[in-house]
Amino acid sequence: MAKTTSAPAGTDQLARLAADATGCTACELFRNATQTVFGRGPADARVFLVGEQPGDQEDRAGAPFVGPAGRILDQAMAEAGLRRDEVYVTNAVKHFKWTAKGKRRIHQKPSAREMAACRPWLESELAAVDPAVIVALGATAGQALFGSKFRVGTARGQVLDLDGRAVIATIHPSAVLRVQEPADRDEQYAGLVADLRRAADLEKEKR
User: Fold this and answer.
1) Average pLDDT of the chain, as a whole number
2) Is residue 189 pLDDT above 70, yes or no?
3) The predicted structure's pLDDT at residue 9
4) d(CA 18, CA 171)
5) Of 41, 43, 38, whose CA–CA distance to 8 is shortest?
6) Beta strand pairing status for 47-51 and 133-137?
7) Which of 22, 55, 126, 148 is most deeply buried (CB count within 10 A of its CB)?
8) Max alpha carbon distance in the chain (Å)?
């Protein structure tokens, strides 16, 4: 798919979207979140990564994937031949959904209504960036793109199509952190790297 938006125009468009999103009250998540966490990356990025929602550290920092899962993602992307400063990274939901456990804020999965409320922001980001390849990081990202029937296990290993754009599905990097056994963790991480490498190779094919 050829680019329909120039980089300067796309940059301005993303800046306007990010500014508009700071005041989003489309669902109730804004009430307990520190701030809106909009996507980050160049407007001419050819690879576009979508996660679930900001976590505790992202909510405080105002940027996506800057916590432990972000460090896993950065490492995996580097091994796959993707540079963080050349890809666009965002989340399906822009506010942190959490519940208190003592002094900790524990992540809660966003509901279908909350995902739907944030859908226009994701669609606008996609329109502004116009990437060649989209990477869906986890089930929530995939469901935000394809609907509630999306399953990572079924979609993984395929090249999906979203309005003419190629989509690669993989696990969310936080899934690697949740695995206790080192051997299993290594296997999960290797799978993430392999999926990201597939996205990198696919982007090269589409140049």
Assistant:
1) 95
2) yes
3) 75
4) 26
5) 43
6) parallel
7) 55
8) 51
Residue labelled with tokens 């589409």: 206
- The confidence band for 3, taking pLDDT boundaries of 50, 70 and 90, is low
Alpha carbon distances (Å) from 46 to 4, 88, 188? 12, 8, 25
Q: What is the DSSP letter of 23?
A: T
Which pair of structure tokens corresponds to residue 197?
Answer: 């490498």
**CA nearest neighbour of 2 among 40, 42, 44:** 44
Strand intervals (E) in 87-178: 88-91, 98-101, 104-107, 133-137, 160-162, 165-170
Task: Give the model confidence (pLDDT) of 146-187 as tens digits.
Answer: 999 999 999 999 999 999 999 999 999 999 999 999 999 999
**How far is residue 106's CA from residue 55's CA, in Å, rounded to a whole number?**
9
- pTM here is 0.94
d(CA 200, CA 88): 13
Residue 135: Cβ within 10 Å count: 29
Strand partners, 110: none
Sheet (strand 47-51) strand order: 88-91, 47-51, 133-137, 165-170, 160-162
- List Cα–Cα distances, 183 to 120, 178, 186, 188, in angstroms: 40, 13, 5, 9
CB 82 within 8 A of CB 41: no
Cα of 107 vs its chain's centroid, Å = 16
Q: What is the pLDDT of residue 8?
A: 73
